[in-house]
Amino acid sequence: MTTPIMTTTTPMFAPRSRLSRLALCLLVPMLMVIAGCSGGPMKKPSISLTELRISELSREPLSLTISLKVDNPNPVELTLTDIRADLFLTDAPVGRAESIQPRVTLPASGSITLPMRLNVPIKTLPDALRKSLTRLAAGGGLPYRINGSVTTFNGLLDIPFSTTGNLGLRR
Predict the structure, then answer these.
(1) 38-95 tens-digit pLDDT
(2) DSSP for the chain?
(3) For residues 59 and 148, what is the distance between their CA atoms, to the nearest angstrom?
(4) Which residues contact 151 (CB under 8 A, 6 or more apart)?
(5) Dmax over Cα atoms in the chain, in whole Å?
(6) With b meaning 16 or more CB within 10 Å and e meaning fewer, what string describes 45-75?
(7) Which residues make Cβ contacts (< 8 Å) with residue 27, sequence separation at least 6?
(8) What is the residue-averaged pLDDT of the chain?
(9) 162 beta partners
(10) How many CB atoms lie within 10 A of CB 23?
């Protein structure tokens, strides 16, 4: 006589399956609501230079403050961390700027001015400074380029950015 291995008619994984179905039934509508509220795919924030100034003139290093305007086109606020940028004047590298604030909240569909600190060793300045002063003395603008990145979504997304333009003397 053989004895059956399973004597119940209830499937072995029924409780787990019911729990999985319940979780799926709750998760799918939640994701649909989140996707609908976000207004579609996330857009990249736009970044532009608003100011470059000498913040401290001492022996070593030269301290510059760079102010960036960051516009958020998204309907949700973003928390930005690990904000860094490399500054180039007349295509000569000047240095790497770091955000003064380690963590910044960018409002939904809004903008902020983000101050960044750049310490430049005086000995690296001669080439960049000579080219820059020559252009400014000739009445031309000073071409700059900023390449950088910010991290958002708790370190999950690194957003690179680049902006270029011409600086002039403030009168």
Answers:
(1) 457 888 888 888 888 888 777 778 888 999 999 999 999 999 999 999 998 888 888 8
(2) ----S---SS-TTHHHHHHHHHHHHHHHHHHHHHHHHTTSS--PPEEEEEEEEEEE--SS-EEEEEEEEEE--SSS-EEEEEEEEEEEETTEEEEEEEESSSEEEE-TT-EEEEEEEEEE-GGGHHHHHHHHHHHHHTT--EEEEEEEEEEETTTTEEEEEEEEEEE----
(3) 27
(4) 80, 81, 82, 83, 157, 158, 159
(5) 106
(6) bebebeebeeeeeeeebbebbbebebebebe
(7) none
(8) 77
(9) 147
(10) 10
* Residue 69 near residue 113, CB atoms below 8 Å: yes
Q: Which of 34-38, 105-109, 160-164 has the highest mean pLDDT?
A: 105-109
Instruction: Write the secondary structure of 119-168 as one string of H (helix), E (strand) and C (coil).
Output: EECHHHHHHHHHHHHHHHHCCCCEEEEEEEEEEECCCCEEEEEEEEEEEC
- Radius of gyration, alpha carbons of the chain: 27
Q: What is the pLDDT of residue 10?
A: 46
Distance between CA atoms of residues 128 and 90, nearest Å: 7
Q: How far is CA 93 from CA 47, 87, 125, in A?
A: 19, 6, 9
